[in-house]
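Notebook p. 47: complex prediction with zinc ion.
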Amino acid sequence: MKAMILKETMPIEKEPLQWVDVPTPSPGPKEILVKVSACGMCHTEIDEIEGRLQPNLPIILGHEIVGKVEGLGPGVTKFAQGDRVGIAWINSACGKCQFCKNGNENLCSEFKGTGCHAHGGYAQYTVVSEDFAYLIPQRFSDSEAAPLLCAGAIGYRDLRLSGIKRGQTLGLFGFGASAHIVVQMAIHLGCEVFVFTRSEEHRTLARKLGASWAGGPEDEAPKKLYCAIDFTPVGETVPHALRALEKGGRLVMAVIRKRNPIPPMDYAQLLWDEKEIKSVANITRKDAQEFLSLAAEIPIIPEVQEFRLEEANQALILLKQGKIQGAGVLRIPH
Ligand SMILES: [Zn+2]
Ligand SMILES: [Zn+2]
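Predicted complex, structure tokens below:
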């Protein structure tokens, strides 16, 4: 099969992903073989490529995978040939530790990420345990469904952990794939949403999707925020977001890694008054499942910008530069 493979970490500008032929994987016990049609792109891939996360090299990246079940390993009972399925960031967890038993499998110390510890969707085929795949609701096209699997599902977890309630004000810092889905969910929930981003195109999209205000990261929003979610890969956003919070407000940090450090912060000005900071680590299967049903019900339709799999290097450079509107999705040729 054809795949874009990462053999060593380096800046994405050096275009490290290589277009290669590799053997098509075969499904083991309780695994399904998926013929991939679309795979979303995520900032996490840039963290892996540039070495802020340590993938098992060589690796096929990609954890927002949509495709059809093409083969069944021994003992598969949950899926049939031809089912349309999705695969998300959570590839496996031990199932036995206290985190797994309490529904926090995202914190399992044996957590494995798709496209990081196991091969992902930047390829024509992939295999996954039947316990870590999800049926895709009919109303979404393959490309629309792909970003729901990370940008959407993790956004759902961010919003849950923010504790936001109907009628409250929510700030979104950065307006990429995840935030443009979260704004739709938050408005559906009855929140007023303020968007902070440098990109004029992203501000226009935010207003179109129902944000009541959009400005720059240093600008003052018309109202104080009960909650803020920081989607940006940079450290400087943290003090801006804390400054915008109401007393007792909570900042949720959605990214796995920041590209640069959080600057020193004045405790009295930015953190006192019972403000909280919470990070979000990975997702659970429940997040993915619940979010897919909710997205179909609302409905949430992601804005997608499509690229061909062979163009993944150039598309990821655009993602790093913040030049993608909504979510970037790779189409897989067959
Ligand atoms: Zn992701
Ligand atoms: Zn575990």
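Notes: The chain is about 25% helix and 25% strand. The first strand starts at residue 2 and ends at 5.
Next step: compare against the earlier run before touching the bench.
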